[in-house]
Write a structure and sequence with these properties.
Layout lengths: L5 E4 L18 H6 L5 E3 L4 H13 L5 E4 L24 E5 L7 E5 L4 H13 L4 E5 L3 H5 L3 H7 L7 E4 L8 H4 L4 E3 L10 H7 L4 H13 L12
Parallel strand pairs: 1-3, 2-3, 5-6, 5-7, 7-8
Antiparallel strand pairs: 4-6
Length: 228
């Protein structure tokens, strides 16, 4: 019907912890993104959540849904990363290695964006150039011009790693054939959410390891040394 309806979903990942796997919505984000004409936004912190509400208030052409996290999520220092206003365009460059063309792009949503930022710091210690992209909304990003999308995810940079504590379905459009996804391919488990995140690989250490595997591969077609 194209009505301006705003939905708010909470408990968006295995961060539920003690409630057990049957309460952990591993498949919900992929299913929601598959609904035609529904705009899904999964903000990464308080500032992105405020911007998400701003978008929701002015959105036209159909329903919009906010997917929020139950667990504690740090508020990013916006003096050190890009403004949260970038949320309105669906995805934006949150941070990158200064003065160098990125060798790899780390893409995150929600609570997992902090893992991408932490991995960036560790990879930079190894001499790598890294871009971190916050992608709170596939639908808003899809609605942008090709030029803008290419400015965030340059076609020449084909080493891309997405991080989301949910089913990876849908992410390969953004990471491509040469990319990878740190996601959930099984149900979760019951326990403190910090333990579950570690058990299922949602740690800075695992993101660094997965990124290193991508970086160790031979140059993908089109990813020339000049491009990097």
């Amino acid at each position: 019907m194209g009505l301006h309806v705003i939905f708010v979903f909470t408990h968006d990942s295995i961060g539920l912890g003690e409630d057990g796997p049957t309460h952990q919505p591993i498949e919900h984000l992929a299913a929601l993104r598959a609904i035609p004409n529904l705009t899904v936004i999964r903000p990464c912190d308080a500032n992105e959540t405020a911007e998400a509400w701003r978008v929701a208030m002015t959105h036209s052409g159909g329903p919009l849904l906010l997917a929020l996290s139950r667990q504690k999520v740090p508020t990013l220092n916006r003096s050190q990363v890009a403004p949260a206003s970038g949320l309105a365009r669906g995805a934006y460059v949150l941070a990158e290695t200064w003065g160098r063309t990125p060798e790899i792009i780390l893409i995150g949503t929600g609570a997992e964006v902090q893992l991408a930022l932490g991995a960036k710091g560790e990879l930079e210690k190894q001499g790598r150039a890294v871009r971190v992209v916050s992608m709170p909304s596939f639908e808003l990003f899809e609605s942008q011009t090709e030029a803008y999308r290419d400015s965030v995810l340059p076609p020449a940079i084909r080493r891309r790693l997405a991080i989301e504590a949910a089913a990876p379905l849908g992410w390969h459009r953004w990471v491509g054939l040469d990319g990878d996804v740190v996601g959930m391919s099984t149900f979760g488990a019951s326990g403190p959410y910090q333990d579950l995140m570690k058990h299922f690989g949602f740690t800075v250490e695992n993101v660094v390891e997965r990124a290193a595997k991508l970086l160790a591969r031979a140059n993908p077609a089109g990813d020339s040394p000049a491009a990097r």
